[in-house]
Amino acid sequence: MTDGFVYSWGHNWRNGRLGHGDTKDRYIPTKINGLTKIKKIYCGAGHTMAINENDELYVWGCNEDGELGLGDFSNGSTPTLNSFFKNKKIIKLICGWCHNLALIENGEVYSWGSNFYGKLGHGDFGDRNTPTLISFFKGMNVIQF
Questions:
Q1: Which H, E and C letters describe the chain, residue by residue?
Q2: Cα 7–84–77 angle (5° rounding)?
Q3: Which domain holds residue 93?
Q4: In this structure, is the dihedral angle defined by the CA atoms of residues 23, 29, 35 and 38, taken in order, positive or negative?
Q5: Which pLDDT band, with edges at 50, 70 and 90, does 13 fall under?
Q6: Is residue 68 included in any domain, yes or no?
């Protein structure tokens, strides 16, 4: 499809990870309201992220480890704009198991979510509920991960 809409289906579990504002399972592809002109979609274990044609990041689903990056730990059953990236163009985004990495156009790398085993790269084990710059890469101009 080339309309830029997003459809989801399957087991909606307790966190509303399908993005329809409820926890009802869907057995056929169902359009998610409020998302238009989406150009990229990224899926984690229980959360999803989408970037639209204006390079805005929308997030929804499980947030028990802060993986939505909205500053809290509340699950989100509808797509919500993550305003942290308002003036930062994401060129690469990876959703992992309850954590994420984002590479920004200027070469900075951010991570957030679960930090089990130190996988966020900040030298500790604390979860992050907002995108946090990985200081190790400061001044390196990362181009790929």
A1: CCCCCCEEEECCCCCCCCCCCCCCCEEEEEECCCCCCEEEEEECCCEEEEEECCCCEEEEECCCCCCCCCCCCCCEEEEEECHHHCCCCEEEEEECCCEEEEEECCCCEEEEECCHHHCCCCCCCCCEEEEEECHHHCCCCCCCC
A2: 35
A3: 7-137
A4: positive
A5: confident
A6: yes
Please give the backbone phi and psi of residue 136, each rounded to the nearest 5 degrees, phi first: -55, -35
Residue 108 has pLDDT above 90, yes or no: yes
Separation CA 43–CA 37 (nearest Å): 18
| Amino acid found at 129 | N
The answer to whether residue 142 sits within a structural domain is: no
pLDDT tens digit sequence for 45-86: 999 999 999 999 999 999 999 999 999 999 999 999 999 999
Query: How many domains is the chain built from?
Result: 1
- pTM, two decimals, is 0.94
